Amino acid sequence: MAVPTNFETLLYEVDGRVARITLNRPERHNAFDEVLTREINTVWKALRSDDSIRAIVLTGAGEKAFATGIDRTWSVDQPEPPFMIDDPLIALGPKTADLWKPVIAAVNGMACGGAFYLLGECEVITAAEDATFFDPHVTYGMIAAFEPTNMLHLMPFAEIMRMSLLGAHERMSARRAFDVGLVSEVVPVDELRARARVLATRLAAKPPLAVQATVKAIWDGLHQSVAGRREMPLVYTQLTNPQTKVEMDAVVPPDFEVR
Q1: Are residues 241 and 172 in the same domain?
Q2: Residue 89's CB: how many other CB atoms inside 10 A?
């Protein structure tokens, strides 16, 4: 199943076995409206069955923002009882769409609020030197709940709490994001997309079943007990390691870099 290309709010490009998805609403700082949310969910679901694509790069158009959360002009009807809520941004995430191909985020400019629905479901986050991260909800009298809890596996508790409570009064720099483990690499602005493509190309060159099983096993491990973390990898290993000695001997060790 090929991914459709006639999008209103996304740019979709293919380079070999790598797909690049660009959030394309720079005039709105790539905020999520109903169309963008629907279109990116469509892409994730289509990529599940597109065997020609093995890795994905996700970035934002323009120089000011990767993504800035929900577009405040988008009105979402809600149930009357206060203990229920329909959260349309849940559809943004690749893992929520059951996609287990690796996604590399290339963060340029601001990443705030609802951007964490996406970043919280990426395997690797790279950032330009000018990237900043923050969550403005509390500043505007709204609870910061969905976004920070979606990042608990990526950031220390104290850093998430500080970001959530200080809101728009403080932004985390790319360097600080690297120091706390949110970002795995910081590069000059003009090198961001090229660097993300290099990483994605390396991932795409590896046996896809091994890559996807590794992605899913590690994500599943986040929700397992200690005992489950010991048992679950055995199942994945039996399912995805059918290689013969001949096949393994045929693998040529790649050149590597030290970071």
Answers
A1: no
A2: 21
- Say if CB 55 and CB 204 are below 8 A apart: yes
Instruction: Evaluate whether residue 71 is within a structural domain.
Output: yes
Q: At what angle do helices 208-221 and 226-240 cross, to 10 degrees?
A: 170
Contact 113, 66 (CB under 8 A): no
Q: What is the model's pLDDT at position 94?
A: 96
Q: What is the per-residue pLDDT for 65? A: 97
41 lies in a domain? yes
Q: Please report, rounded to a whole number, the percentage of residues in the chain having pLDDT higher than 70.
A: 90
Cα–Cα distance for residue pair 235/231, rounded to 1 Å: 7
Long-range contacts of 204-209 (CB under 8 A, 24+ apart): 204/16, 204/17, 204/18, 204/53, 204/54, 204/55, 205/17, 205/254, 206/54, 208/51, 208/54, 208/101, 209/240
Total domains in the fold of the chain: 2
Whole-model pTM: value is: 0.89
Q: Determine, yes or no, domain membership for 257.
A: no
Same domain, 188 and 235: no
Task: Let me know if 202 is exposed, middle or buried by CB neighbors in 10 A (0-12, 13-18, 19+).
Answer: middle
**Residue 147: other Cβ atoms inside 10 A:** 23
Dihedral sign, CA of 99, 104, 109, 110?
A: positive
State the distance between the two ends of the chain, measured CA to CA, in whole angstroms. Answer: 37
pLDDT given at position 8: 95
Task: For residues 195 and 227, state if they share a domain.
Answer: no
